[in-house]
Amino acid sequence: MRFEAVTIKDIAKALGLSTSTVSRALRDSYEISPETKKLVLQYAESINYHPNPIALSLKERRSRSIGVIVAEIANSFFSQTIDGIESVANSNGYNVIISQSRESNDKELVNLNYLTSRSIDGLIVSVSAETKDFSSFKELFDRGMPIVFFDRIVNDIDTHKVIVDNYKGAYDAVTHLIGNGYTSIAAVSGSELLSISKDRLEGYKAALQENGLAVNDDMIKFCPNGGRVLEEVGQAVTELLALPTKPDAILSLSDKLTTGCLRILKSQQISVPGQMGLIGFSNSDLTELIEPPLSIIKQPALEMGEIATNQLLQLIESKRPVTEFETTVLEPQLVIRQSSAKKHI
């Protein structure tokens, strides 16, 4: 049996009223008597009637819904960001439609087409690791679709953006490692196309150079799937361990890379922090429970989601075209635990 939602026609038929009378009663029109309004509203509530959002969107030219595209909902960073997005959206009367790209440009485009065909009022996006061509986003934005980027941003589109200070996060982490006696520090990164990868690697390199340590490109490994494919992480760590001068610490530049590196090191019987220091970007609470507890660079994900949504609603509800945009940069938090303890000489 196919589900069919209750309509105004159903209410009108049940109560012996015209559809226009029911419609006006539901809108609290002054043209309808209090008695009739009460009758209609009580019946509508008893059968769990809700207005058709598609019909409302056609009438008001707004759906009061926003689309969100992220790489992976299961990722702790993105799930926390979504909490922030939903809290602000829901409190302002908006629904949220969430989709994930799985780091695929093709799936990202499918999601984009699906969301925009549903007459959403705006988009919040963190781009996929594969995306090189941002013309679809630019075309939508130029046609008037409000878009806000967060975390993985598109620099060529002039709109609101919300990021963390990725440069500082990596810089502080490497500086911490150096202060604890590590002198041969490798970096395991996600896709080199991503804005966050570029910024974090710049911070990594700057910290090395400012402390008199050379930047060795052989010490930088890329995992295009960002840790979602463990074999990629395994290959990166194995190649690092095969270098003539092995690293004594690893900075990992994304959530799943951090736990992935630890898993590979353990599988190769390399003790952390005894033989290898480890620190990485992560928002997972589980990093505190892992053995050893992981040092992390934590991002204010909830706040990023809240700010991005407030900025998007400002674009959606503005009575005039918005021509001035801002990039909000939030501070990361360095959380020091056992995995980056002082190196034993």
Automatic annotation (TrEMBL):
Domain (HTH lacI-type): residue spans on this chain: 6-60
Record keyword Transcription present: yes
Entry keyword set: DNA-binding, Transcription, Transcription regulation
GO molecular function: DNA binding
Residue ranges of domain HTH cro/C1-type in the record: 7-50
One Pfam family cited in the UniProt record for this chain: LacI
Protein name (database record): LacI family DNA-binding transcriptional regulator
Record organism: Terrimonas rubra
Lineage, highest ranks first: Bacteria, Pseudomonadati, Bacteroidota, Chitinophagia, Chitinophagales
